[in-house]
Amino acid sequence: MGYKILLTATLAVLWLTLSGYFDKPLLLSLGVLSVFISIGVAWRMRILDNESVPYLRMFALLPYWGWLAVEIVKSSITISAVILRPDMVLTPRLIRVKTLPKSSFGRTLFANSITLTPGTVSVDLDDDEIIVHTLIKEMTAREDFVEMARRCAKAAGEKEISF
Amino acid sequence: MSEWLPDLDMIRHIIAGAMMFTGAVFMLIGSLGVLRLPDFYARIHAAGITDTLATILLLGGMMLSSGLTQTTAKLALVGVFLFLTSPTATHAVANAAHKAGIKPRLGTIKSPHPRDVEGS
Questions:
Q1: In terms of domains, do A37 and A62 share one?
Q2: Same domain, residue pair A72 and A37
Q3: Measured between alpha carbons, how far is B66 from A18 in angstroms, rounded to an integer?
Q4: B66 to chain A, minimum CA–CA distance in Å?
Q5: N or C: which end of chain A has fewer CB within 10 A?
Q6: Is residue A113 situated within a structural domain?
Q7: pLDDT tens string for chain B (120 positions)?
């Protein structure tokens, strides 16, 4: 029930934001209709759970996004400097990262954060490790990945953080 | 009193313009990287710059220049969706290449300075 109300409110706000109509009765009622059809379909598909309605969780992620934005700016500048050098020196590596958050949401967040940071791309994901391609060897430092994994686990709401 | 107060609206537009210009420069650097870097996996990293920092700066500049309007809310939504989907797409491409057996060039790759290649 809670998820139904939450999804209804989110869809209504999204519809109003994207359309900007507040005083056209026909369009507003069509908007209400489309929101209810969406809720009905989602309910019949039985996907109304924490996975598909993660909006409360998103507020817990805001501090992490702030930290990630700073990391993105720093590594973007590093990679730009590498690209712009006339005599370009690259030291690509394929490394295995074994420190992972426990929950599947934390792992998804971690792998996506690695890909979002320029200079590192997660290539493959196994049960207990992520294979990461890095452009320069300065970005293979273990501490950086451990720090990011720790913050991801915390943002995913994990109780025990063992690294 | 009021004539030597800075014009806030003008400052806002100057900052917005500067952000958009910097974003465009990073877009250019990213494109240059896609052209210059040696192999598939390395080029993904250059494309990553255009996906992240350049997009933050461009969207941020546009949001700042349109002020507190509906457009800003829409731009914020665009930013959120981009940040959720672009790493997934990048990972899908990299993973497909890995599964298809494309081996990355590893070790140390040096490209000579253009001045030494021309030979004058």
A1: no
A2: no
A3: 16
A4: 15
A5: N
A6: yes
A7: 456 667 788 889 999 999 999 999 999 999 999 998 888 888 988 888 888 899 999 999 999 999 888 899 999 999 988 888 888 899 999 999 999 988 888 888 888 787 877 654
